[in-house]
């Protein structure tokens, strides 16, 4: 009986250790820390867009995954597209920026 309890305790310990060692990753493969960092990056970029007098009216979707930013939406000019990419690239934590922006004057 004592041996059974020891084996049961060991099994519980090992299974809980695996959960902790895995870093509590989500189904997307991100840890909680990465999710927060990505959310902060997205919020910073959205704040820059809203704070810019030339861009604030645009509906731009900003997605961030592990520091990689994707911009999606419609812009009126190449200059607006370049400015959005520049704002995103110059945000702390951004590794690279992919643009899915469509230019429609």
Short description:
Helix content is 50%, strand content 21%. The protein is built from 3 helices and 3 strands.
Please explain how this structure is put together.
With 105 residues, the chain is α+β, with helices and mostly antiparallel strands. It has a single domain (30-103), classed as Histidine-containing Protein, Chain: A, CATH 3.30.1340. Helix content is 50%, strand content 21%. It is built from three helices and three strands; from the N terminus they run H-H-E-E-H-E. Strands 1-2-3 form a three-stranded mixed beta sheet. Helix 3 (78-89) links the parallel strand 2 (68-75) and strand 3 (96-103). The protein is elongated and about 80 Å long. The termini are far apart. The model has no long low-confidence stretch (mean pLDDT 82).
**Mind telling me the C-alpha Rg?**
22 Å
Largest sheet: 3 strands, mixed
How would you spell out the order of helices and strands? HHEEHE
Q: Indicate the CATH architecture.
A: 2-Layer Sandwich
| Total beta-strand segments | 3
Give the tags.
105 residues, single chain, Histidine-containing Protein, Chain: A, alpha+beta
């Amino acid at each position: 009986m004592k041996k059974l309890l020891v084996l049961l305790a060991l099994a519980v310990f090992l299974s809980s250790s695996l959960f902790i060692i895995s870093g509590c990753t989500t189904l997307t493969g991100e840890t909680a820390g990465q999710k927060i960092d990505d959310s902060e990056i997205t919020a910073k970029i959205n704040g820059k867009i809203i704070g810019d007098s030339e861009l604030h009216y645009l509906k731009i979707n900003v997605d961030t995954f592990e520091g990689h930013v994707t911009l999606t939406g419609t812009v009126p000019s190449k200059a607006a597209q370049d400015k959005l990419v520049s704002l995103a690239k110059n945000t702390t934590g951004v590794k690279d920026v992919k643009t899915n922006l469509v230019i429609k004057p």
